[in-house]
Design a protein that fits this description.
The protein is mainly alpha-helical. The chain contains six helices and two strands. The model has no long low-confidence stretch (mean pLDDT 87).
Length: 105
């Protein structure tokens, strides 16, 4: 007789959830710093030389904060104005992760 596993549930303690969320945030922050911070700055305010030159969006602004997740994903994927698209550099899950980080700024 064989064993068939139909599904599994992972239960995390509150501390494990916090740790997992912290690791996810760190991963998202790392992606953001690697691919976005040169223009948008570490704080998202776009006050870097390149950000000022290209008139990059302030990611902490109310217009960005009120944008839908789907819109932000679309912009990061396809680009906008002087900003290049990242669809060939980043996976869909990495782009979604950056979007989550932007919302935390």
């Amino acid at each position: 007789a064989g064993l068939i596993i139909v599904g599994a549930m992972l239960l995390l303690t509150p501390n494990a959830r916090v740790s997992a969320n912290r690791e996810s945030l760190e991963s998202s922050r790392s992606l953001y710093r690697q691919h976005c911070a040169s223009c948008h700055g570490a704080n998202g305010k776009a006050q870097t030389p390149k950000g000022i030159e290209t008139e990059a969006d302030d990611l902490t602004s109310s217009s960005v904060k009120s944008s839908s997740r789907e819109r932000l994903i679309r912009i990061i994927t396809n680009g906008k104005g002087d900003m290049p698209g990242f669809k060939k550099k980043l996976s869909a899950s990495q782009i979604a992760s950056i979007t989550t980080y932007i919302r935390s700024l």
